Prior knowledge:
- With 250 residues, this protein is an alpha/beta fold.
- 48% of the residues lie in helices and 15% in strands.
- It is built from nine helices and seven strands, in the order E-H-E-H-E-H-E-H-H-E-H-E-H-E-H-H.
- The structure holds NADP nicotinamide-adenine-dinucleotide phosphate.
Amino acid sequence: MSDRAKMIVILGVTSAMARALADEFAKAGHPVILAARDDEETAFIAADIRTRCEVNAIPMHFEAQAFEDHESFVNSCIESGEGTIGGVVLCYGFMDEQPKAQSDFDIARRTFDVNLTSAISVLEKFAAHFEARGEGFIAAISSVAGDRGRQSNYIYGASKAGLSAYLEGLRNRLYHRGVHVTTIKPGFVDTKMTFGLPGLFLVATPQQAAKAMYKAIVTRKNTAYVPWFWRYIMLIIRHVPDWQFKKMKL
Ligand SMILES: NC(=O)c1ccc[n+]([C@@H]2O[C@H](COP(=O)([O-])OP(=O)(O)OC[C@H]3O[C@@H](n4cnc5c(N)ncnc54)[C@H](OP(=O)(O)O)[C@@H]3O)[C@@H](O)[C@H]2O)c1
């Protein structure tokens, strides 16, 4: 990877998937900025990575819904003193139970604020920085849930569909400036978000997901399904005609 040893920013590192991904970059020799809203847990993860991987790991506070703080956050990353930023990976996300999101607009709005609005807010600032330098990468975790709206989680799914479309446009814009954008679409991964949910199948571990995400990012994939077979599962699901899809209980 040409960005080897450049600083990588991981947003939402208290997610098990993000933590395992930070590990992958650190093991490859990259210093990392680890950002999340739980300062204690973030400092713990940073100390662990510094000890095991012998690279610098800088903990930083990041709250997705504090849009007004995003500019100073991005500036702090740029001025962290640990060298050039090679890329940023947006890993955080929010999902509540679909019936709650249907009946409580605050939950629906939070789903969009965290998964989509905040991504636009923070990634545009990183995009401007990379665009000016003519290098770097942006990656973000969307979801297979954004590929088709289903009754069981269409509010979360709609926020991720918006994120995927946003990233597609960003990729198109930044391609012309030498900056790459990767959209990551996991299927089911065993994390806090999915703990106790019914009907899960083909569940990946956070470590398996992180290895696949790392590979997709360093090989500059456009859209990566994680694990890979979800591409084909979603291909089938996307091709079910609407007249039939609306009758299904998904
Ligand atoms: N697990 C799956 O099956 C699956 C499938 C497809 C996509 N995804 C996506 O994968 C990503 C990681 O999720 P996960 O499964 O690892 O779940 P998770 O363990 O619940 O992680 C979610 C992360 O988002 C952070 N977060 C939530 N709201 C935030 C806010 N307002 N500001 C800053 N950070 C916030 C959480 O911070 P706290 O630790 O402080 O709560 C946590 O770090 C998410 O984007 C999720 O949508 C997950």
